[in-house]
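step: validate -> pass
step: tokenize input -> pass
step: predict -> running
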Amino acid sequence: MPHLPEERAALYEFALLALSLAHGIDDHLSAFELESLSDRLYRHHPGWTQREVHDVVQDALHTYTAAPDRWERARQACVRLAQTLGPSGRQQALDDLLQIARADGLVLEAEKQFVAKIASFWHAAAPHLPEGWTLLHDLVYLNLALALGADEDLTAREMATIRQAVASGPLAPLDQESLSVVIRETLQFYTNHREGVTREAAANRLGNALAPEQRTTILASLIEVANADDRFLDTEEDFINGLVMAWDVDPGVLYDPPEGA
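step: predict -> pass
step: emit ->
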């Protein structure tokens, strides 16, 4: 079914705004940022195919790079979206912008201000990212996303396995109380922002910060978390295999039994 011109126009204008955020702040557009932009647009437009969304993003990217004044073009996109999006649509767009900014693992202060200015113009609340977010939060987030993402259920056994895996891993906190605080904060954040892009940002940050053997240790512990409910679902295997590829880890180290076993 053909899409209405105004539907494509709104998608196009948001893509322009997101490109201004992702590229304009630090003059760099990472593959993660571009992928997360397309991914979020696709998931929030169920009547569209991935190819259709990709084409809109590419058209917006062409317009953005060719614009003589990119910030003026971003301002125009902001005005046009204010005229077409309702209150909930504007709030969703702000949340999406912040998560796109986070896709490269770091939200710059200028990016926060960019989103805050749009929120002010739209008379909406700026989305909030918790202060003090660390690599340990990202690690706990990946564990929670794995355990909860497949079946929306977190058993006591899975939680105990997560605690043990993190406590004995390369980012182990100083004490159990500190770990409890991080788990509580991360679970709250996961509940409120459970879109997949945050998972990808966490994986990107960890992959850039950790040594190869540390990444391998974390992947092995994630397999234990996946098996904590005595099931290893296809979605869990896909989750872990995605990290194996992103972190450039030999899957044989994880899945092949040692000789003589």
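step: describe -> Residues 5-121 form a domain with the TerB-like fold (CATH 1.10.3680.10).
step: cleanup -> pass
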